[in-house]
Amino acid sequence: SAAALCVGVGSFADPDDLPGLAHFLEHMVFMGSLKYPDENGFDAFLKKHGGSDNASTDCERTVFQFDVQRKYFKEALDRWAQFFIHPLMIRDAIDREVEAVDSEYQLARPSDANRKEMLFGSLARPGHPMGKFFWGNAETLKHEPKRNNIDTHARLKEFWMRYYSAHYMTLVVQSKETLDTLEKWVTEIFSQIPNNGLPKPNFGHLTDPFDTPAFNKLYRVVPIRKIHALTITWALPPQQQHYRVKPLHYISWLVGHEGKGSILSYLRKKCWALALFGGNGETGFEQNSTYSVFSISITLTDEGYEHFYEVAHTVFQYLKMLQKLGPEKRIFEEIQKIEDNEFHYQEQTDPVEYVENMCENMQLYPLQDFLTGDQLLFEYKPEVIAEALNQLVPQKANLVLLSGANEGKCDLKEKWFGTQYSMEDVENSWAELWKTNFDLNPDLHLPAENKYIATDFMLKAFDCPETEYPVKIVNTPQGCLWYKKDNKFKIPKAYIRFHLISPLIQKSAANVVLFDIFVNILTHNLAEPAYEADVAQLEYKLVAGEHGLIIRVKGFNHKLPLLFQLIIDYLAEFSSTPAVFTMITEQLKKTYFNILIKPETLAKDVRLLILEYARWSMIDKYRALMDGLSLESLLSFVKEFKSQLFVEGLVQGNVTSTESVDFLKYVVDKLNFMPLEQEMPVQFQVVELPSGHHLCKVRALNKGDANSEVTVYYQSGARSLKEYTLMELLVMHMEEPCF
């Protein structure tokens, strides 16, 4: 069972002299209540009964949620409701909890996404709430108030009394009880939440937060990770009231398209970009009562970084093409159909996520659209789409360029996260060109009709006896197939997973790296042809496993075989140009580097290196890559990889056993390989640690990261199921007091 409560107020309401107060209060209300004074009481209660809780503060909303075993739901509701009825917020808990808020801030600091958001907010007009420091830290909530004789404790209570009022709270409870019972409980438990009758704070009059000279510029930023990225951003009037049309969803669908004629398809052919995503994330920061953002973020190659103005120009050419053509009903209906299918056949979400989503929806939509308002497209209004689309012009865009190459050229520092950046005017020749009626790009056009959208949702009859678990129905020297027909969920979807096993991969660090490059190039080659399937909710993923290539596809079963065959065809006819090879290896260097500079990922790699016999470390792989590998060595590796394999497959869902056999047959026929000489284990052997205490110290590779990482590993060896279960239980008991 789960419950979530949303208060219609957030960090926008922070007082100017106490940045982060709303976030701090979200922490403080949980520190015991009059009825249940124990400071950790609620967390301990949930832990004991298999539950969990969380809370988050957004710009104009604060959400609290928890889940717990059903038989303890009523008691949990009562304990939880007390935080909104009579929280203690004792003075001496303040200093301790400031530390928790501060460590959240410290953990957020090395994240490029958070830094970019903070920098973006700082561009808002002076005095606009978008420019506030929402996180809060020890400086703003403890040291600064002390120096200015501000009583944080009194101000917390004042904020709670003013803003935690019942008339703009929304509550969702989900449980197997009858609705009447739940209604009775809620009335009984929550009726005492105070209602101060004061108007809800409203920021809707503060429009155009970014109508300022600081906005339409080029910002160069030094990122933490190794990456080149260009983000183009527009600040539009608030779009929430158009939720029945979802104009930004329509535009981002086209801008983020990766098929023929799309921005990314063109940039990939030029070897300028690796990824692109665009639109509005619908967080309070990106969409609130004062504005809506529309942004396009492009991950650039080294070459693309050199040509970032041309990359921006390509985006502007595409948008201009859309503006000229105007909205198209065919495309709107295609998106609508896909969203309808997804909604109609959705799998049940985790209750705690569902209630969290619903209580926010209740703040945003009228009653009849609580369940659907955030997902469905209800009506086609070309004029609403055109109005948003026509604002996406170069003159109103802000450019942010992230790159390590900016190091040393950035003379400004963002106040809270310390991000180094510089601000300049857009280069004159480009600024002048963008003011004119510039030419369109003939390579950019709307996507063709999507052949992967499912239309047959019939559930198939069994053609073999029902089984509880997957059963091996094919077993040959070249491969085997596991199969299970779905008899539980009864939805027209299927799940297919294949593992192409080869002993070649682990022979050397260089082979592991060549395999990584191979899988990345294969993914790159598939990006355009498989994109249509991807948007029609057919998901695919290629993973460079430790002992083989893992291919996963899932989604509506009607068109799923088409996608699977497409992937195998591209694997069978694998090829790469020198330009793509260079682009992917450059990117892989950055990926390895970004793993090595994070204490937690480095620590995991070192731990596995100690434990797993015959494993190549990330440092080994990074060195092999830096030593240089050739396209010839890649092609001969791939040829050898494909010549000898063992293929293990699993097909389950709305598929007959006859159909499932075709998947394995397709792989075997298409790749035409020899069987392996001997059977191969697909797990590393783990060493048995000698008894005693062993300490391995590793110096982190990022000098600027203040976070440390400690891993304590207790080896149990192989045990019985019961003992494993007891270990899990032990961990659950330890977690809450440690936290």
Automatic annotation (TrEMBL):
The keyword Zinc applies. It comes from the Eukaryota. Residues 1-126 form the Peptidase M16 N-terminal domain. Residues 343-624 form the Peptidase M16 middle/third domain. Keywords: Hydrolase, Metal-binding, Metalloprotease, Protease, Zinc. GO terms for biological process: proteolysis. Residues 152-337, 629-736 form the Peptidase M16 C-terminal domain. GO terms for molecular function: metal ion binding; metalloendopeptidase activity. The keyword Protease applies. InterPro entries: Metalloenz_LuxS/M16, Pept_M16_N, Pept_M16_Zn_BS, Peptidase_M16, Peptidase_M16_C, Peptidase_M16_M. Belongs to the peptidase M16 family. This is Nardilysin.
